[in-house]
Amino acid sequence: MTENDKASSRPTVAEHVSSAAIAVEHLVKVYKQTLAVDDISFSLPRGSITGLLGGNGAGKTTTIAMIMGLVLPTSGRVEVLGHRMPEESAAVLGRMNFESPYVDMPMRLTVRQNLTIFGKLYAVNHLADRIAKLADDLDLSDFIDRANGKLSAGQKTRVALAKALINQPELLLLDEPTASLDPDTADWVRGHLERYRRDNNATILLASHNMLEVERLCDRVIIMKRGRIEDDDTPEAIMARYNRTTLEEVFLDVARGRVNGAKEAAR
Amino acid sequence: MTELSLHRGISIHRIGAMILRYWYLLLSSWPRLLELLYWPALQVITWGFIQYYIAQNASFFARAGGTLIGAVILWDILFRGQLGFSISFLEEMWARNLGNLMMSPLKPIEFLLSLTVMSLIRLAIGIVPMTLLALFLFHFNVYALGLPLIAFFCNLIFTSWSVGIFVSGLVLRHGLGAESIVWTLMFAIMPLACIYYPVSVLPVWLQYVAWALPPTYVFEGMRALLSENSFRIDLMLEALAINAVLLVASFWAFLALLRSAKKHGSLLSAGE
Fold first, then answer.
1. For B207-226, what is the mean pLDDT?
2. Which residue intervals define the domain ABC transporter in the entry (chain A) (predicted)?
3. Residue B11 to residue A120, Cβ atoms within 8 A
4. Contact A72 B263 (CB under 8 A)
């Protein structure tokens, strides 16, 4: 193979963007006087798990909401599974799903009723089998015919995860998926997410305040602060750069403005 | 949900899924089901006795028997049609489920169509027993109006959907802080729609406003039918034309408010 052949077989920038699960370019969101997201760009390859970290108000939720099409960007571009959001959202909404503390599953409906409705909305084939499989995988069988409002926090989280997985999404957006869960249930949810990514080559973008969770699950971490990307690398590389042994310490360095000092110490 | 794709690929299955959701919801709470029957029944009983009393003392009401009770039933079609639409929408806000729906392949037009079907179902649950009460207690058979009743019903339900779509858009944009509009906006129309009195009672300048509202044509038409036994098809056609404009305008407003909600991030904090 000649150098020219190699060059021609290498993906162009445009091809790279279109093959990415998520491509964000110069994304900006301004709410009245508040700059929530300030010119961020990143691209997530298919099959990856990426953690989006940052303190409260860092812009994580707004970024995820713009990726989902729930919030319109002030400027910039979002592509999901090769389609521009929100203009072409009809082409991708059936191939993605999400879980967020900002939404609930309807409380008065049973778990089975909720999953049936969302399964129909996502046009899931063999829906009864799919619900049975999710009930088995996520251990929902004991309460599948109970109203969602009568479940414990851990059970509700598993139901929300079942809803997020009902259409076997290629792209899963998770905002604090294990918040308010006991360590055992949280660990169990993480294990399930790992298996789901592995079995389906799914892409997962995860916003979390749980640094252990991010270290365990993510191949890459994007740290945000005041709407900007403060750092973007593998967890190991980021910890090495800050001369820290845990992401929690890195998070505190970033949150408390000790970034330069930590980086210099590492050098 | 994307507003740009609303004109193509409407899915009956997704509409069916939403109707199923509201049906489950309706059956999950017997007090709410009872409430659908309770208020219309109370209305018809109260106004039935008023009609009965006035008819003994006023020549017009004696001649046009059932005018008041007929007006009450038609008003309830208008009011409860809108409530049936809007309450199903509010259920999504109360349940914090709107984000789930917006992120699903459900399109705005499909969402709104499912709400219109639910408005008919909820209306039927409340209105059919109401009309039967009117028949058995006060000997007023609204179904005896025949074909004109269909024209009255269609025009009223179309107006109720227009109002429902518009106020749902307002709640979408401004959150549950705007919920009171859902319950009260129809009452702003009430004096101008001339439910219990003819349009000629209004000052001349206000009559122009009244004639811009489709329900005014319906109530005038009902009075003409009951007192003069004449069906004013011209009034029904004019109401239908205004309704067509209102439906298109309300849908456009809903999309604009949805877009504004996305611009301002209101969908993320769809509470108060």
1. 93
2. 22-251
3. no
4. yes
Domains in chain A, start-ordered, CATH in brackets?
3-233 (3.40.50.300)
Q: What is the pTM of this model?
A: 0.86
Question: φ and ψ at A37, to 5 degrees?
Answer: -135, 130
What ipTM was predicted for this assembly? 0.84
Q: Pick out chain A residues at pLDDT < 50.
A: 1-17
H helices, E strands: number in chain B = 11, 0
Per-residue pLDDT at B187 exceeds 80: yes
Any B CB within 8 A of A118 CB: yes
Confidence of residue B175 (pLDDT cuts 50, 70, 90): confident
Phi, psi (rounded to 5 degrees) for B232 = -85, 85
Whether A80 contacts A21, CB under 8 Å? yes
The H or E element containing residue A192 is helix A183-200
Question: Which chain A residue is nearest to residue B98, measuring alpha carbons?
Answer: A103
Residue whose structure tokens are 């390859």: A45
Q: Which chain B residues touch A147 with a CB distance below 8 Å? A: 28
Return contacts of B66-69, CB within 8 angstroms, 24+ apart.
Answer: B66/B138, B66/B140, B66/B226, B67/B222, B67/B223, B67/B226, B67/B227, B68/B196, B69/B44, B69/B134, B69/B138, B69/B140
Interface contact A121-B102, CB threshold 8 A: no
pLDDT digits (tens, 9 = 90+) for B116-160: 999 999 999 988 998 898 888 888 888 888 889 999 999 999 999
In tens, the pLDDT along A205-239 reads 999 888 888 988 999 999 998 999 999 999 999 99
- Rounded-to-integer distance, Cα A198 and Cα A33, Å: 43
Contact B175, B271 (CB under 8 A): yes
